Structure formats: structure tokens, C-alpha cells
Amino acid sequence: MIILKKNKKTIILIVVLLIFIGFIIFWVMSHKEVETNNNDTNFTEYTPQEEISNTQLRQTLVTLYFKNKETGELTPEARMIDSKILLNNPYNELIGLLIEGPKNESLEKLIPQGTKLNNVNIQKGIVSIDFSEEFTNVENLGAEEESKIIYSIVNTLTELTEVSGIKILINGEENKKFSDEGLDFSEAFVRQTPSAT
């Protein structure tokens, strides 16, 4: 009887001791895990070399079409510009960039020198562009070069989802032509497949 009581006390003491040791181990492990997590956070945290400026956040990619000096084909040039300038009248801005010319030295602009943009508006997906007379005053271009001028504009503007084609006016007048009586502007021009331009 006395031995049984001693054994019961010993067993209870061992159980209590094991619970206590288990609690200490659990407490130590949970604190180490928190420490490890904190250390991991420090290692995985990314600190950029330089902060991204507001200007960089506002950048958007546009595609402009110019003539490749080697191949003579229309070639896209991707350009990062401030998206704020596209908010009011993106058509004006994109045509202005075409008039300025490419940044890439292997490309050349197609819109004739001295051309000014008088007005631009859009109606039912067709952008009407009113150029100054310098747009048509270039002689001996030939139909192929005239087509490249037109399609550099068409391809650039139809990158915008709301634009399906363009109409060219000269000093507010419709149905004009290039000076060599080649390509006329009586119809709206729509985007063609790359092989057709």
C-alpha cells in the first residue's frame, strides 16, 4: 500500500515535471520562431537603389511609325512618354511626335518638312487631321512614298483602341491630293496589314 502511494506520487510528479518541461520547450521554440521570422523579413526585404519618381510612375508606352533607312519599310518605334500629355488630346500629341521625328538614328520621319498641324478631332472612330499645305507640297514622291507618309500616321493613331482610321484635310479642305496628283484624300484611310504598307 505504501509502495503504491509512493509510486502514485512519483508518477504524478513525473507527469507534472514533463508538462512543465514541455511548456518551457514550447515557449522557447515559439520565441525562436518569432526571432527567425523577424530575421527572415530583414533578409527578404527589398530596398530599391533609387526611389521611383512621380514622373516615372506616369510614363506610358506609345508606338510611332517611321521609315527604316535601310529597308525603306515602315518600322515601329516604342517611346516612353508622360501619360499626362495624352489625357487632353492624344491625337495632337502623337502627330506632333511624328512631325518631330524618330529618336532612333536608323529611322527617318516621313511627314514633310515644314508641315504644321492645324486641327485634329475624332468622330465615330475616324480622326480628321487638318495639316498645313506643306504636307502636300513635296514633289516627285511617288505612290509608294506617299502611302508610307499616310500609313505612318494611320498605324500610329490606330494603336489607340478608339481609332479605326484617319481622314486628311489640308487647311480645312477635303478631297485634296499630293502635289504630283498621286494619292488623294477623298476617303478615310484604315490600317492595313504590314505586308500591304
Describe the structure.
It is built from 5 helices and 7 strands, in the order H-H-E-E-H-H-E-E-E-H-E-E. The protein has about 200 residues and is of the alpha+beta class. The protein has one domain (about 60-195). The strands form 2 sheets. It has a 4-stranded mixed beta sheet with strand order 4-5-6-7, with helices on one face. Residues about 40-45 have low confidence and may be disordered.
Features:
four-stranded mixed β-sheet, 39% helix, three-stranded antiparallel β-sheet, 197 residues, 5 helices, alpha+beta
- The count of helical stretches stands at 5
Distance between the termini: 108 Å
- The whole-number mean of residue pLDDT values reads 81
**Gross geometry:** rod-shaped
Main beta sheet:
4 strands, mixed
Q: Please, how many domains?
A: 1
Q: What's the arrangement of secondary structure elements?
A:
Layout: H1 2-44, H2 54-57, E1 59-68, E2 74-82, H3 85-88, H4 90-100, E3 107-108, E4 117-123, E5 126-131, H5 143-157, E6 165-170, E7 189-190
Parallel strand pairs: 5-6
Antiparallel strand pairs: 1-2, 1-3, 4-5, 6-7
Helix pairs in contact: 4-5
